[in-house]
Specification:
Blueprint: H1 3-12, E1 34-38, H2 44-56, E2 60-65, E3 79-82, H3 89-102, E4 106-109, H4 115-125, H5 132-139, H6 141-151, E5 159-162, H7 165-175, E6 180-183, E7 193-194, H8 198-211, E8 227-230, E9 236-245, E10 248-259, E11 266-271, H9 277-294, E12 299-308, E13 311-318, H10 326-335, H11 339-347, E14 362-369, E15 374-376, H12 382-385, E16 391-396, E17 403-404, E18 415-423, H13 429-439, E19 444-445
Parallel strand pairs: 1-2, 1-4, 2-3
Antiparallel strand pairs: 5-8, 6-7, 6-8, 9-10, 9-12, 10-11, 11-14, 12-13, 14-18, 15-17, 15-19, 16-18
Helix pairs in contact: 3-4, 4-5, 5-6, 6-9
């Protein structure tokens, strides 16, 4: 029985105990289809829902991870394999060997670094996934922007490839100063910098070319030595979570975002969106246009865009589930939809379940970023946070005693905590977000910042 056939049987059968390990197939034999998970989100608050979604569909999870010694949760992960290489032919060969040995009939990734690897494995095995070409376009902003500009140049900022000083000079001469310089393959705002003055451009370029290297992080395997210089987009920032199945795009949620203007790090997410209906249509139309231009299919997607004067333009798109507690928490809290479950259905080649009725709730993710480099001394008022009504999840990302760096020395490591909150009335959300920020002022030592508490 294929994974899709098993899902069809599960969905048509009477409800069963979600803790049942083995589903019964149509012939009465005990079977358990296997899905490969390529990496997981970093914090248990995000990756446990992904593992439970597989369990509740009767799936056996085999994890392929870059984290040696990962503490696989008992009963949720059947096998753990550590990657021999983060990408390329060796990673594909290992993945094919694991998939064939385990009889995997679905493969999913939760990380940008594995998108192309997973698509290559699925292409070889004939499993549902974006094509290798489509996956590559999502992982290289230079190639992806070219593909979209060929269809509708109004959907993207004006951009130029930068591989050296001459390219940078030509790009600034054409597009002007004040633009954004970023790695061609990256994520999480890593290495994204605005060029305020022409005089700083060469030094920023040199630093980013050194940073955006596979030697720094496998995130940059899909565009080594490549930067993109593009015009700065005004407007509000948003992300879009959705699915593509058999060429049809469905937008599940639009998230309103706040970023730190100094380094582009995300500091807050909110749902439902405050965009007008017309602006929401513009965002939805942009998502469908990008999906078509990239050739995405059989996958979830996480698209980021900016909206200004009714026009939506692309920042980037990823052929994977969105992180930052958006799909794990905000989407189910506000839309009522189990995004992870539907992503698993897509991995089986099945259609995602129909949209749920909105819950009527309002939710946000509050991100606490280190204000400066130093040694993290914890959150002195963390216990008071748990006494607030409306707290859905608290994730502390750094340990007391960790040395914390901030951009441009470190991007992901600057995030100290994430807090998910929800309320029943829209006017109650902002005060709760403010109270969370007040309580979660970090204690930092070894810097010029006064210690909190």
């Amino acid at each position: 029985m294929t994974l899709a056939e098993t899902y069809a049987a599960i969905r048509s059968a009477p409800p069963r105990d979600p803790f049942t390990t083995l589903p019964t197939d149509l012939d009465g034999a005990m079977t358990q289809p296997t899905v490969l998970y390529y990496n997981l989100r970093a914090h248990p608050s995000e990756y446990l829902p992904a593992l439970r979604a597989a369990r509740d569909l009767g799936l056996r999870v085999v994890l392929v991870t870059s984290r040696a010694g990962f503490p696989a949760p008992a009963g949720l992960v059947a096998e753990v394999h550590v990657m021999k290489e983060p990408g390329g032919p060796a990673a594909v060969a290992q993945g094919l060997e694991i998939a064939r040995a385990t009889g995997a009939t679905g493969v999913m990734t939760w990380s940008d670094t594995d998108v192309v690897t997973v698509s290559t494995i699925c292409a070889e095995l004939g499993l549902p996934a974006p094509s290798v070409q489509a996956a590559t376009l999502t992982r290289n902003k230079w190639l992806g922007r070219q593909a979209l500009a060929a269809v509708d140049p109004a959907c993207v900022p004006r951009f130029r490839l930068v591989e050296g000083p001459d390219d940078l000079a030509a790009a600034i001469a054409e597009l002007g100063p004040g633009g954004v310089l970023k790695p061609a393959s990256g994520a999480g705002s890593a290495g994204v910098e605005r060029i305020a003055r022409v005089e700083q451009a060469l030094s920023v370029m040199g630093r980013l070319l050194g940073f955006a290297s596979p030697a720094t992080h496998p995130l940059f395997l899909d565009g080594p030595g490549q930067l993109v210089y593009e015009e700065f987009l005004p407007g509000t920032e948003h992300s879009v979570e959705g699915f593509v199945h058999l060429g049809a795009t469905r937008v599940v949620a639009i998230t309103d975002k706040r970023t730190d203007p100094a380094n582009f790090l995300e500091i807050e997410h909110r749902q439902p969106t405050a965009l007008s209906r017309a602006e929401q249509r513009a965002v939805t139309n942009l998502a469908a246009e990008v999906v078509r231009a990239f050739g995405l299919d059989n996958c979830s997607f996480h698209l980021e865009c900016k909206v200004d004067e009714g026009m939506a333009r692309l920042v980037e798109i990823a052929a994977r589930i969105g992180g930052g507690h958006i799909t794990s928490h905000l989407v189910p809290l506000v839309t009522g939809e189990n995004f992870y479950r539907n992503a698993l259905l897509l991995a089986a080649g099945a259609a995602p379940e129909p949209a749920s009725d909105p819950t009527g709730r309002y939710a946000a993710v509050v991100k606490v970023v280190a204000p400066a480099a130093g040694v993290f001394g914890g959150f002195p008022r963390l216990e008071a946070l748990h006494e607030l009504a409306g707290i859905e999840a608290v994730a502390v990302h750094r340990r007391v005693g960790d040395t914390v760096l901030v951009p441009p020395d470190d991007y992901a490591g600057a995030l100290l905590a994430s807090v998910v909150v929800s309320v029943d009335a829209p006017d109650d959300l902002a005060p709760l977000v403010d109270e969370v920020r007040t309580l979660l002022r970090p204690r930092m030592t070894g810097t010029e910042i006064p210690a909190a508490g």
